[in-house]
């Protein structure tokens, strides 16, 4: 697994993580509170396997459920997954329809699995574009799971980072009288982001070898450790995930100091 971390040159080969047992000996203070996942490469994985793109999305969906469990078992309390960007609405209608089918499956059928494990579900993104039935189901699920504390799974769905910041600024404009003419602070904006109740990601993992964030959490990622993995998302393994956590645990985060 090849990777690149911000400010570091990539080694020739990412070290293979031996086992989950080894991870148990890591200091708890080094386990990230929040992990961001850019799950890229479903279609490229399918093409490489000579399969239709839909099969790549299906495999990627199953991998998503696995990854949430890996994170929860490792002690990660928050996972933000980039499942559908605001730009993805420009894809072919047939592909969008299939992706919405998977979203419905997650929110309506497979959500019961997360409830049993006391995972809190959150949706972050533009809630005006998805269909009414999806967003109503999402709202109910958020309410039903809001007291769960084992782990928070935030689905960045119909999400765009610039759109999120623009929305926060518009909220401030709408509330301008309550500010009494004082200057707007970073805290004012952060409190109005869609992720206001979720910690900023300590690390962000992107699969498929692309080395950019693609409008994912631009405000929240300023001090995130970035790991770019060469594998396509459906091929990403538990060993790969724990390997990133192992590497993260050895890093000293300076926050610009």
TrEMBL record:
It is an enzyme of class 2 (transferase). GO terms for biological process: polyprenol biosynthetic process. GO terms for molecular function: ditrans,polycis-polyprenyl diphosphate synthase [(2E,6E)-farnesyl diphosphate specific] activity; magnesium ion binding. Mg(2+) binds at residues 40, 225. Binds 2 magnesium ions per subunit. Its cofactor is Mg(2+). Its EC number is 2.5.1.-. The active site is at residues 40, 88. It holds the Pfam family Prenyltransf. Substrate binds at residues 41-45, 57, 89, 91, 206, 212-214. It comes from the Bacteria. Keywords: Magnesium, Metal-binding, Transferase. CDD domains: Cis_IPPS. Belongs to the UPP synthase family. Z-FPP synthase subfamily. Homodimer. Catalyzes the condensation of isopentenyl diphosphate (IPP) with allylic pyrophosphates generating different type of terpenoids. This is Isoprenyl transferase. It comes from Candidatus Ryanbacteria bacterium CG10_big_fil_rev_8_21_14_0_10_43_42. The gene is uppS.
């Amino acid at each position: 697994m090849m990777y690149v971390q911000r400010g570091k040159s990539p080694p020739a080969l990412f070290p293979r993580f031996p086992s989950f047992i080894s991870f148990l000996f890591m200091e708890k203070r080094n386990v990230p509170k929040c992990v961001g996942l850019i799950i890229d490469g479903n279609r490229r994985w399918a093409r490489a396997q000579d399969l239709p793109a839909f099969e790549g999305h299906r495999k990627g969906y199953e991998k998503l459920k696995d990854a949430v469990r890996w994170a929860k078992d490792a002690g990660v309390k928050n996972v933000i997954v980039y499942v559908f960007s605001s730009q993805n609405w420009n894809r072919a209608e047939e592909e969008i329809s299939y992706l919405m089918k998977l979203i419905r499956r997650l929110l309506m059928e497979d959500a019961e699995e997360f409830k049993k494990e006391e995972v809190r579900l959150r949706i972050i993104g533009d809630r005006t574009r998805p269909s009414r039935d999806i967003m109503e189901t999402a709202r109910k699920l958020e309410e039903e799971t809001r007291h769960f504390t084992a782990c928070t799974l935030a689905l960045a769905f119909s999400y765009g980072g610039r759109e999120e910041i623009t929305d926060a600024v518009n909220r401030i404009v709408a509330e301008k009288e309550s500010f009494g003419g004082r200057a707007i602070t970073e805290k004012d904006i952060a409190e109005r982001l869609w992720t206001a109740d979720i910690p900023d990601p300590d690390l962000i993992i992107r699969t498929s070898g692309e080395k950019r964030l693609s409008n994912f959490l631009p405000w929240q990622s300023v001090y995130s450790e970035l790991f770019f993995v060469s594998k396509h998302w459906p091929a990403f393994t538990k060993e790969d995930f724990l390997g990133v956590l192992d590497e993260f645990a050895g890093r000293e985060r300076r926050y610009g100091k």
